Amino acid sequence: xxxxxxxxxxxxxxxxxxxxxxxxxxxxxxxxxxxxxxxxxxxxxxxxxxxxxxxxxxxxxxxxxxxxxxxxxxxxxxxxxxxxxxxxxxxxxxxxxxxxxxxxxxxxxxxxxxxxxxxxxxxxxxxxxxxxxxxxxxxxxxxxxxxxxxxxxxxxxxxxxxxxxxxxxxxxxxxxxxxxxxxxxxxxxxxxxxxxxxxxxxxxxxxxxxxxxxxxxxxxxxxxxxxxxxxxxxxxxxxxxxxxxxxxxxxxxxxxxxxxxxxxxxxxxxxxxxxxxxxxxxxxxxxxxxxxxxxxxxxxxxxxxxxxxxxxxxxxxxxxxxxxxxxxxxxxxxxxxxxxxxxxxxxxxxxxxxxxxxxxxxxxxxxxxxxxxxxxxxxxxxxxxxxxxxxxxxxxxxxxxxxxxxxxxxxxxxxxxxxxxxxxxxxxxxxxxxxxxxxxxxxxxxxxxxxxxxxxxxxxxxxxxxxxxxxxxxxxxxxxxxxxxxxxxxxxxxxxxxxxxxxxxxxxxxxxxxxxxxxxxxxxxxxxxxxxxxxxxxxxxxxxxxxxxxxxxxxxxxxxxxxxxxxxxxxxxxxxxxxxxxxxxxxxxxxxxxxxxxxxxxxxxxxxxxxxxxxxxxxxxxxxxxxxxxxxxxxxxxxxxxxxxxxxxxxxxxxxxxxxxxxxxxxxxxxxxxxxxxxxxxxxxxxxxxxxxxxxxxxxxxxxxxxxxxxxxxxxxxxxxxxxxxx
Amino acid sequence: xxxxxxxxxxxxxxxxxxxxxxxxxxxxxxxxxxxxxxxxxxxxxxxxxxxxxxxxxxxxxxxxxxxxxxxxxxxxxxxxxxxxxxxxxxxxxxxxxxxxxxxxxxxxxxxxxxxxxxxxxxxxxxxxxxxxxxxxxxxxxxxxxxxxxxxxxxxxxxxxxxxxxxxxxxx
Lengths: 727, 171
Ligand code: FES
Ligand code: FES
What we know:
A: Aldehyde Oxidoreductase, domain 4; disordered N terminus; B: alpha+beta
């Protein structure tokens, strides 16, 4: 289906495409049986003798709640009681499960229909088996809570009684399936707790770091302080002298294809020993000139770029320069934001066993299939010689879309054939080896006519990447609001090289662009004599679908999605109402709107000063993710978590400075993520519209960053043109 | 006893020696250097995988356990500092009345997102309620600020603490 999978995934992760996915529901062949005395009906459903149903959740669980959400969709159409469902994590096997990844808030839009169809397929096979046994037409059979019912003859049977026969039924054509009317949903839309919650609370081993295998050895990694430096020479004698140390192996140009690292790996009988031995390694690195990269040189390069024209044009509509020249008012400003780290609480880790041309991994990866391919390539074996088990993941936020740790551990394990090796990165190495949210610099110009109407919007983004191409999360989209809504628009970009590897951080691109554009538009709105939400409603105009220009070379289904101005206005009005927004808001109140990952979100934040520090005292959010919030229990948390993360982008000093080619963050003391004491009350409102449901892991975050920055500007009277906020 | 001097590290590391630890009410012997942090003794030598490694520097709280009822960061506590003290981990915390109430509230409110920080959160919450059965919001903030939750489950952490304390489930 995907012509160029990486390109397609890139487009999806950035924005979320216009989706029309096919479903292939494999039969039971090749699947593990569903446990003792149970019959497996398809890749997702197995029914045990006691009528409990084991449902397979195909995507990695990173805390986004997919392990409840996907099985809920299946259980709904299978027509069983949620209480009878056990959830099991799938292995990475895309031949059976189709795409298996956790990113781009895509699990909901990509699986809303397919998972329901998977459940409906199993149900249809059970009904068909009952029809045969009872000699009645399938059409006369109904189901309810795991039972098959033939009302006319008053016969009922639990699914379990028919499951073995159902497994032999032909898999029905998806087109023939009749899905439930949403009005009769009994699981979708109801609050469902995480299936792993009791095990988490009991301290059960679920995560990658908890993997324990017989005879396993532990590995720690030492990499160069300057990312990308190569290993010149090393002396491991002292490390090897430490009792318990097994082996020290140099690794060269491993990890991720576009950000390979040299490293020394220490294997020992305990991770603590490996970690202690790591400190005794004596390594010389060749920085290859990379120490020239620093925040100061980046800022100077951005300044130089702003003096000229952008290196590349992303979109030109009308004539922005002419419109600016004849504008009643011109507003111009420069904005910037820093590199950010993912800082998942579970450090990057992975376990592998390599033997006889085969490898098995226990991987906390958000994109395990890509990792599997990378491991196969590194080991020189076929992808199907690599088995990948998915562990629960202690936070993703996009970091584990890069499966570099899978390659690293596989190449360490290759050195000790047959012995399982668990690699855990020190926190310092986890920061060093991150793929960072790109920093960026914006120059903005906007034109207002005499009526205060926005007539032109121009920006030059100086971003990061390689060879003129922006890196992950550094792109300037052609549908950037408001460039897609004004007659004259000019979007241009200049790409700086650096040795800082780039990665997708929760709401990639959008988490920075929302801040810069909405904070700048707050200035423009003020120049037009309006508040930002009122100004945005003007700019949005009448309700319509705004279709962005096609990006050449990207398949249709991954083109940027249409932007619905009516849905945008809907969430803006809703949040204005809930926060009692006024024409002249009180000092310290800010607004932000953004559309990303197919979700429309508007936020109002109140900021106040207490004891010389700023804090957010209250936030309101309104979101539109379509017709249905599948699991309200998790939805609330996804939104709050996004919003708390958004506060952290502005207040507290979150940034990853780069000096001499080195990231200047080694642990959480230098990376002040929000703690419980900064968390304000948050009022959430969901606007339901007649659109297919979409994801919630990301889209609430971007407008928060803007709203908090705008609230600070309102409070202090000084524009927040650079993040993080500094007094 | 042979001492190996660390080059980049201030710590010294002795030979393995037998040490008795009292964990979740059971005495267990380990044979490791006295400098080995309690976190890694629990995880590697005793099989308690509930306490988590987050930072190794006392900055995140993922490794929190109790030593004689006090919440401590096990990643920076060498076992030779534990002595006769009674250690409680997440695996054993529900044995106490307060521990049970907190654990139940955590499940009831579905606090975890990724879940990685939660063992530490629960251990800090139980220690708080053991010493302060009716904490105010600022008591909760003060007691819990050392426990990072990267996913931002803080509202539910507050709610669960209040529920366990028997108070109103206020946001
Ligand atoms: S791992 Fe001990 S405080 Fe972070
Ligand atoms: S639940 Fe993920 S870090 Fe707290």
